[in-house]
């Protein structure tokens, strides 16, 4: 009967091949969607790894610095640095914006890092070309995904930066490439107002009687300076000393500094559980829809093939063939169709993944789970055809 199933497949090989290709493309899309989700999780992990931090100190009651806006004074790191268990503390700013590159704009996450030695919190951990930032202004380290090369000039707000180093897979949780610039420049890009806004704010302040008080010399200038300054950062990145736990170091900062402190586990929960949660649900819905469509395709083609050989099935019953043998023949055809579709889908997903604008991470466990799901769908899809075949009257063979 195995030979009979094979012969029947060869007899209708055209339907099997073309249906397998169509099913394979659906399976390929399914594997790619799963890879997109895996890639989003990997992007979030890469973002945390690139910071080199054990703790993130941010504005109280915020989910900063990645999922929500956060603003803390840029001199806060000094008092955090001397707290028990703190090995290093460094300011950092994160700003997602359009970065000018020639005549084009690139969506990127601009990261402001403090001056110091490479390896400090916030610095890119490794380069694939060039060098780290050594000057206090107008130098940048960019990820290859930004399309930048050594010596290129990037425009951020009103300033221009020369690319002196290149990284790979340094991206935000949205997959945007990172561009590292000196902290002072990043503060100006994020917090400093443009000239027109500063002029209008100065005029409003000068016209306000509360600030324009002759009996308090210098009050007006101090107010204007505070309104146009850029003495804030998004977060303080903290590394802890060996022998200390994250909770031991974070709790005094929360208590005495009145700030919110996240450790690595909490930050992963924010990025994965909150920032990409909606995208994960959307991908899950697509996977369910694709599974239902795949099941319908398999069920339809197996049903059609079974209907085409009703007379042959009646003959098999007439000569005494058992029902389970007939059912196994139909099930074999469904499984063969699923295997063909999975092979085509796996190949298409592997070649299509690099072409996607977002990072697609194909892992073996997803392929194994996908293969098992395809076989299960094929088994369920063949139930209707099997029931129809078992109800065939042997008399139809001589009717």
Give a concise summary:
With 399 residues, the chain is α+β, with helices and mostly antiparallel strands. It folds into two domains: 2-44 and 278-397, no CATH class; 60-192 and 229-258, no CATH class. Helix content is 52%, strand content 17%.
Report on the architecture of this protein.
35% of the residues are buried. With 399 residues, this protein is an alpha+beta fold. The chain is elongated, with a radius of gyration of 31 Å. Strands 3-4-9-6-8-7 form a six-stranded mixed beta barrel. It has a two-stranded antiparallel ribbon with strand order 2-10. It is built from 13 helices and twelve strands.
Which characteristics define this entry?
single chain; 399 residues; alpha+beta; 2 domains; 6-stranded mixed beta barrel; two-stranded antiparallel sheet; 52% helix
Mean pLDDT over the full residue set: 84
* Residue windows where pLDDT falls under 50 for at least 5 positions: none
Strand order of the largest sheet: 3-4-9-6-8-7
Q: What characteristic shape results from the CA principal axes?
A: elongated
Which sheet architecture does the biggest sheet show? 6 strands, mixed, barrel
Order of helices and strands: HHEEHEEEEEEEHHHEEHEHHHHHH
Radius of gyration based on Cα positions:
31 Å
The DSSP helix count reads: 13
Whole-number total of structural domains: 2
Distance between the termini: 24 Å
- Number-wise, the strands total 12
| Proportion of helical residues | 40-55%
Structural class call reads alpha+beta
Strand content: 15-25%
């Amino acid at each position: 009967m195995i030979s009979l199933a094979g012969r029947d497949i060869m007899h209708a090989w055209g339907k099997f091949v073309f249906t397998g290709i169509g099913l394979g493309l659906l399976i390929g899309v399914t594997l790619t969607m799963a890879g997109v989700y895996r890639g989003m999780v990997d992007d979030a992990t890469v973002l945390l790894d690139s910071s080199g931090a054990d703790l993130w100190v941010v504005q109280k009651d915020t989910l900063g610095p990645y999922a929500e806006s956060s603003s803390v004074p840029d001199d806060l790191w000094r008092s955090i640095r001397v707290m028990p268990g703190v090995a290093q503390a460094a300011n950092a700013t994160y700003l997602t914006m359009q970065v000018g590159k020639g005549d084009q704009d690139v969506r990127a996450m601009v990261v402001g890092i403090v001056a110091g030695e490479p390896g400090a919190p916030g610095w890119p951990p490794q380069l694939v070309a060039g060098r780290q930032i050594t000057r206090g202004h107008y130098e940048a380290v960019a990820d290859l995904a930004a399309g930048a090369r050594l010596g290129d000039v990037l425009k951020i707000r009103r300033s221009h930066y020369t690319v002196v180093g290149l990284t790979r897979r340094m991206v935000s949780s949205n997959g945007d490439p990172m561009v590292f610039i000196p902290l002072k420049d990043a503060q100006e890009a994020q917090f400093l107002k443009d000239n027109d806004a500063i002029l209008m704010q100065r005029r409003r302040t000068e016209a306000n009687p509360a600030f324009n008080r002759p009996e308090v010399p210098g009050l007006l200038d101090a107010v204007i300076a505070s309104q146009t300054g850029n003495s804030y950062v998004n977060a303080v990145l903290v590394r802890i000393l060996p022998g200390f736990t994250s909770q031991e170091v974070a709790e005094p900062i929360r208590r005495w500094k009145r700030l919110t402190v996240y450790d690595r586990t909490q930050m992963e929960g924010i990025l994965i559980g909150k920032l990409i949660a909606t995208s994960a649900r959307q991908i899950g819905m697509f996977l369910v829809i694709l599974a239902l469509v795949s099941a319908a395709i398999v069920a339809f083609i197996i049903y059609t093939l079974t209907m085409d050989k009703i007379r042959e099935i009646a003959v098999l019953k007439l000569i005494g063939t058992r029902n389970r043998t007939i059912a196994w023949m139909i099930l074999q055809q469904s499984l063969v169709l699923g295997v063909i579709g999975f092979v085509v889908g796996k190949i298409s997903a592997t070649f299509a993944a690099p072409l996607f604008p977002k990072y697609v991470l194909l892992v073996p466990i997803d392929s194994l789970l996908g293969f098992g799901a395809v076989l299960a769908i094929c088994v369920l899809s063949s139930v209707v055809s099997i029931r129809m075949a078992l109800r065939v009257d042997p008399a139809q063979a001589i009717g």
